[in-house]
Amino acid sequence: MEEEDINHAIFLCPPARQAWALAHVPVRPQLFPTSSVYANVDHFLDPISPGSQVQVFPWMMWYIWKTRNTRVFENQAERPDEVARVAEGEALSWQEAQVDVEGEEFPSTTTGLTPGYRRGLSLPTIFMGQRCYVDGSWKATDVFAGAGWCCISSEGSPPMLGATNFRRSLSPLHAEVKAFIWAMRCMIGHDFRDVAFLTDCSDLVKMVSSPTDWPAFATYLDDIRIDREEFSSFSLIYVSRNANVRADSLARQARVSLHHVLFVYNFPPN
């Protein structure tokens, strides 16, 4: 039996062809895929090629390869449509992680910034699953700290909103972390498993991406690590305050309340 090569595994075998077609990559003889792995990769890299507009292709190659290994070594088969969906979701999560809202000011040096901060881009208007904007609100003279989130769906349904308060924590950053954990658990409770979370707290993003650098928050970070396993697609993205005004407003309203607040619904509280 002839040994399978990389080109056949990723481009030519029938399940791979189906996955590429389902990812909206034009598949036709003499163009793509071909018998040359170099020509197939160049189909996406050559700026004058029709495939140059297909930004998902690195993720497609990776997940087709992973699926092939799962089939060979674990005797488990993944459907081509599922491969395309996961690859497109991961590509979108990566693209969103590179995004910052236009006009945000950063120092001229990138030292100390989490990889993924970029200037002059806006969030893509087309996305999969849910986007959950989340914020915490803290003031030293208040009894409570507040948390708020606003979740929008790729299906265009009305946004869902959430707000709560809790006894004032040690610092504003503690409030941001607790607000994020609460928002994650609300998404899990609503069975939203493909979620990009957005925050205007850069330290929260750094904390989640490098948890060992924040030992004082180890207990919270353990909760985050456990909860994020409930999501099929998870990301935490930094945005400017101007992009997070709705979650900020909900968190502030909850913080200044004289009583305990717990609100989750698709219209704001009175």
Write a brief structural summary:
The chain has 270 residues and is of the alpha/beta class. The protein has helices at 6-12, 14-22, 37-45, 57-74, 80-97, 172-189, 202-209, 218-228, 245-256, and strands spanning 130-137, 144-153, 160-167, 194-199, 233-238, 262-265.
Structure, described:
InterPro entries: RNase_H-like_dom_plant (IPR044730), RNaseH-like_sf (IPR012337), RNaseH_domain (IPR002156), RNaseH_sf (IPR036397). It holds the Pfam family RVT_3. This protein is an alpha/beta fold. It has two domains: about 5-95, no CATH class; about 130-265, Ribonuclease H-like superfamily/Ribonuclease H (Nucleotidyltransferase, domain 5, 2-Layer Sandwich). The chain contains nine helices and six strands. The protein has helices at about 5-10, 15-20, 35-45, 55-75, 80-95, 170-190, 200-210, 220-230, 245-255, and strands spanning about 130-135, 145-155, 160-165, 195-200, 235-240, 260-265. The protein has a six-stranded mixed β-sheet, sandwiched between helices. A hairpin with a 6-residue loop joins β1 (about 130-135) and β2 (about 145-155). α4 crosses α5. The radius of gyration is 22 Å and the shape is elongated. The termini are far apart.
